[in-house]
Amino acid sequence: MSSPVIHFFETIDIQPDTSQAIYIQIAQQITDAIQRGILPAGSKLPGTRQIAQIIGVHRKTVVAAFEELNVQDWVKTYPNKGTYVIENNLAEQRPLKSNYSKKFTPPSFSFKQTHLFDLPDYPQKTDYFFTDGTPDIRINAVQQWQKYYTATARRKTVWNNQKWYLPHRKPLHTQLSNYLNITRGLRISSDNLLITQNAGMSLYLLTEILLDKEDTIAVAEKNYYKANMIFQKNGTKVKAIPTDKEGMNIDELEKICQESQIRAVYVMPHAHYPTTVSLSKTRRLKLLNLARQYDFIIIEDDWDYDLQYEKMSSLPLYSADDNDRVIYIGEIGKNLIPGYQTGFITGNENLIRTLEQFSHTFTQGENVLMQMTLAEMLEEGEIQKHIKKSKKIYQQRRDYFGYLLNEWFSEDFDFSFPHGGLAFWLESKNRQFNLMKISQKCLENKLYIPPNLLYQNQKESAMRLGFGHLNEQEAEKCLKILKETITEQSTKVKN
């Protein structure tokens, strides 16, 4: 019978298809086990050779993971003695994982466990932090929302009429379909639209209805990590397609289609996550042609279409689809009031009807009051005004953030101004930079950079830094801390 320590290493879950380095995955799971008490203080860890055999990786990968744990003071390696979990390593001393208690009590029942949905924690004691491109909750339309929400709630006809749930009574569907037709060139009616909680829920519903375990979905080589989580949890095979400055390489996709059956392609044509590049017009047209030729579905995720800064921006793929191959998902109103957002799915009427029936199995119905409020704000042009105002502010922030990057980071990173979205993609010119160590050092100076923003492996070293939530003073402070930290590490590397 294996010991509890050996048993833990037998449960380590490696995801080779993600952009995160394998040694980082191993180090993070060991850190979690220490914080949860699975690996108590003073425990001796198996040798790197034994762990490598258990996990099925190269010994050098485990050595790199141990080095990372030593640097972060989770373990200490003694020559000729072994590696031990450091004594008195209390969870409350670790702001990154302050929500974990030291003791871990196993449940009295079994359940499915996975590391697929692990997300970064935001430490409480930091003055500044980067995100992957979230909006600023201070730029909201709370007053306008409150005005329409209160008026709708007081309207007696809303509550006296019990027929609001009938299929033909969908004010938000009608107003949103009109809005999408005008602003994005779609040709839809309310019957082509399903309202969801957010884009993530939309993608989950589509995955459940469209994809089976034996199916293959093609995604960009560097892809939105939450989308990958949903596909992998469903058991769908994920095929990574190389990307470049024009987005997903459609020629490479065609080669794969010639060799095997692809059920669907997931694409973010505007400001792709994480690289922020847009799919070129030539590749858009070829992707549509391939979908018809090789009989696959295109899931077009366009969650930030309203935040495009170029006057002549490209319309969604859905607007040019004449063969019913594209399913279009997005969000509306996510920055009207903090924490509120509404997702939608646009597609064939039969598909929408099936999705609606499936969604009703785990929802109790629609939030009519919220939907009617959003519908009235669309009809009166309030949301359009808010988007226009917000986009102007975010474009100014993008320009200033880019100016600071040019001033301070042009020697260390390659980057370009994003045409849309709320983040920059920075590719390091110096492969010797250890981005994880840089983020740890920044944390000491009250700047938190979540690990999901760091992309470092043998092929690349890059970061995705969001600017939307930062005003000019905050952006300057964050980038100044980052610059000083990188300069310090560069000096150490040279010496």
UniProtKB/TrEMBL annotation:
Gene3D superfamilies: Type I PLP-dependent aspartate aminotransferase-like (Major domain), Winged helix-like DNA-binding domain superfamily/Winged helix DNA-binding domain. One of its GO terms (molecular function) is DNA-binding transcription factor activity. InterPro entries: Aminotransferase_I/II_large (IPR004839), HTH_trans_reg/aminotransferase (IPR051446), PyrdxlP-dep_Trfase (IPR015424), PyrdxlP-dep_Trfase_major (IPR015421), Tscrpt_reg_HTH_GntR (IPR000524), WH-like_DNA-bd_sf (IPR036388), WH_DNA-bd_sf (IPR036390). Keywords: DNA-binding, Pyridoxal phosphate, Transcription, Transcription regulation. CDD domains: AAT_like (cd00609), WHTH_GntR (cd07377). Residues 20-88 form the HTH gntR-type domain. PANTHER family: HTH-TYPE TRANSCRIPTIONAL REGULATORY PROTEIN GABR. In the C-terminal section; belongs to the class-I pyridoxal-phosphate-dependent aminotransferase family. This is HTH gntR-type domain-containing protein. It comes from Avrilella dinanensis.
